[in-house]
């Protein structure tokens, strides 16, 4: 059994690669390295069960790779995922989630392979329903700086639906909520990476808005476990499933917690809230509990402590 992972050098992709290799699975990784980094997979590049190809999942030649023919599982994770990166490359983001999604689905159809699409909680936009169940259709602005990501992911889900309905491809769609760990790039503008880097370097911890907007943070190990369960379980076929932590916390509380756990002297500063930034974000995970027997196990304080320790070691090394 061979597994294909697109976005293999990215944050989630690299963790998934290492997890599957540790289980003795044959893994093929694809990444165009636009936001992914080879250093994320450097320790497994020479692994006997791993092959890596630098290519774009939305380019026609990706399907010409001989290695991808015969794969039995496809995790489609390729896409910029932070506002800093997807807003600087909107058309690449749209292509990865539309053209790239259809190409990977076509590969799954030909190979009779199971297919998991990494969608996002951003599909709910700035929600008017709280917390968010999978049945909620969302409140997304199609005319704004986040639309290239939010709407591309939603269209990717539509393409998955059509391949499931028309061609009976074994499709599973994961709506992933905020995920974190030390593997996040410290320049990608996401909350945890920003706060931890700023706290450890003595810079101001920058909170946008009044800090009362909320998020639900899931440690990467829990997320990867959820994605693998989705791939394995027949009950997840044809389903959209929230993968995230139902514990909701304000951004200001996170800033204070990072400051406390890192013993930082940084001060917290406040800045204008970006356009279309969601005010609340919290998943309903009853479907994941029922179909996958999954829920997060790593508490925020523990995950942040691990993240801070790893970032501190990186700063010392550099």
TrEMBL record:
Q: What Pfam families does this protein map onto?
A: Epimerase
What is the predominant subcellular site recorded for this chain?
Golgi
Q: How does it sit in the membrane?
A: Single-pass type II membrane protein
In which compartments does the protein localize?
Golgi apparatus membrane; Golgi apparatus, Golgi stack membrane
Entry GO CC = cytoplasm
* Gene Ontology molecular-function annotations: NAD+ binding; UDP-glucuronate decarboxylase activity
Cofactor(s) this protein cannot do without: NAD(+)
InterPro entries according to UniProt:
Epimerase_deHydtase, NAD(P)-bd_dom_sf, UXS-like
What the entry lists under PANTHER family is as follows:
UDP-GLUCURONIC ACID DECARBOXYLASE 1 (PTHR43078:SF6), UDP-GLUCURONIC ACID DECARBOXYLASE-RELATED (PTHR43078)
- What is the name of the protein in this document? NAD-dependent dehydratase
């Amino acid at each position: 059994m061979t597994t294909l992972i697109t976005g293999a050098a990215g944050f989630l992709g690299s963790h998934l690669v290492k997890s599957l290799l540790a289980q003795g699975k044959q893994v093929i990784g694809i990444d165009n390295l636009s936001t992914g980094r080879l250093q994320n997979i450097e320790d497994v590049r020479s692994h006997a069960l791993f092959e890596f190809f630098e290519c774009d999942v939305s380019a026609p030649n990706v399907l010409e790779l001989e290695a991808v023919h015969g794969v039995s599982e496809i995790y489609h994770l390729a896409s910029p995922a932070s506002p800093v990166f997807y807003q600087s490359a909107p058309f690449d983001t749209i292509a990865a989630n539309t053209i790239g999604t259809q190409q990977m689905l076509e590969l799954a159809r030909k190979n009779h392979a199971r297919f998991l699409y990494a969608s996002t909680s951003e599909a709910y936009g700035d929600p008017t329903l709280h917390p968010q169940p999978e049945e909620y259709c969302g409140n997304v602005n199609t005319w704004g700086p986040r639309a290239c990501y939010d709407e591309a992911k939603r269209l990717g889900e539509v393409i998955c639906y059509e391949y499931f309905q028309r061609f009976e491809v074994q499709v599973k769609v994961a709506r992933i909520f905020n995920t974190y760990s030390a593997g996040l790039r410290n320049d990608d503008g996401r909350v945890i990476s920003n706060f931890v880097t700023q706290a450890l370097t003595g810079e101001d911890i920058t909170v946008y808005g009044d800090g009362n907007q909320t998020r639900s943070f899931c440690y990467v190990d829990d997320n990867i476990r959820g994605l693998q369960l989705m791939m394995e379980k027949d009950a997840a076929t044809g389903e959209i499933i929230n993968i995230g932590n139902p514990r909701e916390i304000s951004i200001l509380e996170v800033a204070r917690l990072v400051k406390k756990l890192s013993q930082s002297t940084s001060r917290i500063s406040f800045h204008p809230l970006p356009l279309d930034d969601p005010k609340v974000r919290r998943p309903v995970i009853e479907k994941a509990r029922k179909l996958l027997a999954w829920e997060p196990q790593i508490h925020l304080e523990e995950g942040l402590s691990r993240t801070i320790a790893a970032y501190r070691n990186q700063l010392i090394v550099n």
